[in-house]
Design brief:
Layout lengths: L1 E7 L10 H9 L2 E6 L5 H5 L1 H4 L3 E6 L7 H14 L5 E6 L8 H12 L3 E6 L4 H9 L10 E4 L12 E5 L5 H10 L2 E7 L7 E3 L2 H6 L5 E7 L5
Helix pairs in contact: 4-5
Length: about 220
C-alpha cells in the first residue's frame, strides 16, 4: 500500500522540526508541497533533509481553492507515489490546524485510493510565539480560543486567545481587546530572522507583515 505522511514543519525554524518529521522526510520517495510561485516555506524549512529527493509542487489557488483542486491534488499524489512507496506532504505549522492538508486528506480517504494517510504533528506558530514571548496560553481552569477570523463577542467567555492572520482588521481587534480588558502581544514571523514581539499599540498597527498573530489574555483583575 502507498503511504502519505502529512508533516508539520513548524513555524519556519529548521531546528524546530521534530526528529520524527526529519526521519520520515529522509525515508520518503517523493516530497509534496503547495506551490507558491515556485516556492514553499515548509519546503524551505526542511531543505536540509529533502536534499535531492524528487519534489512535486501542487497548485492550491490562494483564497480560491475548490473541490476540483483537491481532487486534482489527490490524483497527482496517487500518480507520483510509487507502488508500495512513501510520500511526504509538507505544511507549515501543524497539518491539523487550519491546513490545506485537512481537506486533501479527506479527499484521499473519500476516494478510497489505496493510500494510507498518517500525520506527523508540527509546532504551531501560536505555541512558538507563546514560548518566545514567555506568555502562558492557558493555566488550570482557563478557556482558550484559537481563531483565524476574530469574533469579539466570544471574548466574554474566555480567558485567553490567539488570533491568527491578524493583518486584516487589526485596529478593530485591538479596540475590542482593550474594551474587554485583555492584555495583548503581537508577534510577527516567529522563529525567523525578522521575528518581532510588540506590545505598543502604534507599533503593532504600523506593522504590515502577513505572517503575524496576536496573543491576548484577560487581565488578572478581570478574571
Amino acid at each position: 500500500m502507498k503511504i502519505l505522511y502529512g508533516i508539520g514543519t513548524g513555524p519556519g525554524d529548521a531546528e524546530l522540526l521534530t526528529l520524527k518529521a526529519v526521519k520520515t522526510i529522509e525515508r520518503s520517495d517523493v516530497i509534496f508541497a503547495p506551490n507558491n510561485k515556485g516556492k514553499n516555506m515548509a519546503l524551505d524549512t526542511a531543505k536540509e533533509y529533502v536534499k535531492d529527493k524528487r519534489i512535486v509542487l501542487i497548485d492550491f489557488p490562494m483564497g480560491a481553492v475548490t473541490k476540483k483542486d483537491y481532487e486534482e491534488a489527490a490524483r497527482i499524489i496517487n500518480r507520483e507515489i510509487p507502488k508500495d512507496g512513501q510520500g511526504a506532504f509538507l505544511t507549515i505549522g501543524d497539518p491539523m490546524i487550519y491546513s490545506t492538508f485537512i481537506y486533501l486528506m479527506e479527499e484521499i480517504e473519500r476516494k478510497s485510493l489505496g493510500i494510507q494517510v498518517n500525520i506527523i504533528p508540527g509546532i504551531p506558530s501560536f505555541v512558538a510565539a507563546a514560548a518566545a514571548a514567555k506568555l502562558p496560553l492557558t493555566v488550570k481552569g482557563d478557556n482558550f480560543l484559537l481563531c483565524d477570523e476574530f469574533n469579539g463577542d466570544l471574548l466574554k467567555n474566555i480567558n485567553s486567545i490567539s488570533i491568527l492572520k491578524s493583518l486584516r482588521g487589526k485596529e478593530e481587534i485591538l479596540n475590542k481587546l482593550e474594551k474587554e480588558k485583555f492584555d495583548y502581544t503581537y508577534v510577527r514571523r516567529i522563529s525567523l530572522e525578522e521575528e518581532g514581539i510588540m506590545k505598543d499599540r502604534e507599533k503593532i498597527l504600523s506593522d504590515r507583515n502577513y505572517m503575524s498573530l496576536i496573543l491576548a489574555r484577560k487581565t488578572k483583575e478581570e478574571e
